[in-house]
Specification:
Elements: E1 4-6, E2 14-21, H1 25-39, E3 47-51, H2 56-62, H3 70-77, E4 80-85, H4 95-107, E5 112-118, E6 136-142, E7 152-155, E8 163-166, H5 172-187, E9 192-197, H6 205-219, E10 224-229, H7 230-239, E11 246-249, H8 251-264, E12 272-276, E13 282-286, H9 303-315, H10 319-335, H11 348-361
Parallel strand pairs: 1-3, 2-3, 2-4, 4-13, 6-11, 9-10, 9-11
Antiparallel strand pairs: 5-6, 5-12, 7-8, 12-13
Helix pairs in contact: 1-9, 1-11, 5-6, 7-8, 9-10, 10-11
The protein binds nicotinamide-adenine-dinucleotide, 3-isopropylmalic acid and manganese (II) ion.
Manganese (II) ion binds near residues 255 and 259.
C-alpha cells in the first residue's frame, strides 16, 4: 500500500511540489490533492507533497516572486509540480505570474505544453450535432520561445513617440523538438499531425516551421502530416473538429487555440495541461487562470485541475492511477455531479468529493 505524506520523504517516494497560487488556484488544487490522496493506495510508490506559497499574497507581503534557488530545488528535488493558477488584480502587470509561471516553463525548459481537447459527454459541446467521437485531439503548444520569449522593450515609453517591441523568437532546435514530440505522439494515436502557423504573413519565423515540418514529414512517413494557417485552424476546430488528431503550433497560437478547444468540450473549467520536458521535473496545471470573478465562492470547477493531476501521474510513471482518475472524472461528468459552469449544482469541494469517491470504484 502506498500513501501520501506531507514533508519528510519516504524512501523512493514521488516528491511533488504543490503551488496553489491565486484566486481559484488554491480551491481547485485542494480538490486535485484530495483525489491524489484517494488514488494513492493503488500507486506503485508513495507520494510526498511539499507546498509552496508563491503567488500574489507573498509578493504583496515581501516582494518575492520565484525565490532564488527555487528552480534548482524543483529541478533536482522533485518529480513534478502541481500548479493552480496565478493572477491578481492587485499586482501590476502580473509581474509575479510572469516570473513564476513563465519563469518555471522557461528555466525548467518545459518545451511541450500538452493540452488535450477531448469531449467527455455529448451534452457538453456547444457544437451542433457533434458526438463524443468527433472531438478527441491533442494540442502540442511550443512552450519556451515564440512571442513569449520576453525579448523586446520599450523606447520613449509613455511618450507620444513610444515604440513597443516583442520579438517572435523561433529557433531551429525549439521548433524541431516540439514538432518531433507531436509526430511521436501521433504514432500512438490516429497517426495524424496538423501543424498550424501563419507562414503566409510571418515569412521568416514561420518559414522555419514550414521547412522543419517538411523535413520531419519524410522521417515520419507513416504519419499523415497536414498544414493549416492558424485562422483556418480556428475555424475548422469549430466547423469540423473531427479532422484533428494531433495539432502542433507555436506558443501564442497554442494559447489561443486551446481556450477555443476548451470551449468546444465544455469550457475552461474542464481543460487540463502539462508543461513537460520528458524525463524531467514537469509542471501540471489547469488551462484556466485565477478567475477573480468567482474566487472564494466555491463555484470553481475543479475537474481541469484534477485531470491535470492525472496527467502528472502519467508523467511520473503511475499510468494505472492516472487512468483511474480520468475514468472517475468522466464518470462524474456523465452523472452530472458537476459545478454550475457545466450545468450542475455542486460546489467545488462537493465535486472533488464525488471524483474521490469514484476513484475508489473505478476499475
Ligand atoms: P480565467 O481563465 O481566470 O477566467 C476566464 C473565465 O472563465 C472567467 O469568467 C472565469 O470565471 C471562468 N473560469 C475559469 N476557470 C474556471 C473554473 N475552474 N470553473 C468555472 N469557471 C472558470 O481568465 P482571465 O479572467 O482572463 O484571467 C484571470 C487571471 O488569471 C489573469 O491575471 C490572467 O493573467 C491569469 N491567468 C493565469 C493562468 C495560469 O496561471 N496558468 C492562465 C490564464 C490566465
Ligand atoms: C495559459 C495562460 C498563460 C499563457 C498566461 C497566464 C501567461 O494564459 O497558461 O494558457 O499565456 O501561457
Ligand atoms: Mn491561456
Amino acid at each position: 500500500m502506498s500513501g501520501v505524506t506531507q514533508g519528510n520523504a519516504a524512501k523512493g517516494a514521488h516528491r511533488i511540489a504543490v503551488i496553489p497560487g491565486d484566486g481559484i488556484g488554491p480551491e481547485v488544487t485542494a480538490e486535485a490533492v484530495k483525489v491524489l490522496r484517494a488514488v494513492a493506495p493503488v500507486m506503485r510508490r508513495p507520494v510526498e507533497l511539499q507546498e509552496f506559497d508563491w503567488g500574489a499574497e507573498r509578493w504583496l507581503r515581501d516582494g518575492t516572486t520565484l525565490p532564488k534557488g527555487a528552480m534548482e530545488e524543483l529541478r533536482d528535488g522533485y518529480s513534478a509540480i502541481l500548479f493552480g493558477a496565478l493572477g491578481d488584480p492587485r499586482v501590476p502587470e502580473q509581474v509575479h505570474a510572469r516570473d513564476i509561471l513563465l519563469g518555471l516553463r522557461f528555466q525548467l525548459d518545459l518545451y511541450i505544453n500538452l493540452r488535450p481537447v477531448e469531449l467527455l459527454d455529448e451534452r457538453l459541446t456547444p457544437l451542433k450535432g457533434k458526438r463524443v467521437s468527433d472531438i478527441d485531439m491533442l494540442v502540442f503548444r511550443e512552450n519556451t520561445e515564440g512571442l513569449y520569449a520576453g525579448v523586446g522593450g520599450n523606447f520613449k515609453k509613455g511618450t507620444a513617440d513610444e515604440i513597443a517591441i516583442n520579438e517572435d523568437i523561433n529557433t531551429r532546435k525549439g521548433v524541431e523538438r516540439i514538432l518531433r514530440a507531436a509526430f511521436e505522439a501521433a504514432r500512438g494515436r490516429r497517426k495524424k499531425v496538423c501543424m498550424s502557423d501563419k507562414a503566409n504573413a510571418l515569412t521568416y519565423a514561420h518559414g522555419l516551421w514550414q521547412r522543419t515540418f517538411a523535413e520531419l514529414k519524410k522521417e515520419y512517413a507513416d504519419v499523415e502530416a497536414t498544414h493549416l494557417y492558424v485562422d483556418v485552424a480556428a475555424m475548422e476546430m469549430v466547423r469540423a473538429p473531427e479532422r484533428f488528431d494531433v495539432l502542433v503550433t507555436s506558443n501564442m497560437f497554442g494559447d489561443i487555440l486551446t481556450d477555443l478547444g476548451a470551449a468546444i468540450v465544455g469550457g475552461l473549467g474542464l481543460a487540463a495541461s502539462g508543461n513537460i520536458h520528458p524525463g524531467r521535473c514537469s509542471l501540471f496545471e489547469p488551462v484556466h487562470g485565477s478567475a477573480p470573478d468567482i474566487a472564494g465562492k466555491g463555484l470553481a470547477n475543479p475537474l481541469g485541475a484534477i485531470s491535470s493531476m492525472a496527467m502528472m501521474l502519467e508523467h511520473i510513471g503511475e499510468g494505472a492511477a492516472a487512468a483511474r482518475v480520468q475514468a472517475a472524472v468522466a464518470r462524474v461528468v456523465t452523472d452530472g455531479a458537476v459545478t454550475r459552469d457545466l450545468g450542475g449544482m455542486l460546489s467545488t469541494p462537493a465535486c472533488g468529493d464525488r471524483v474521490a469517491d469514484a476513484v475508489g470504484k473505478a476499475a
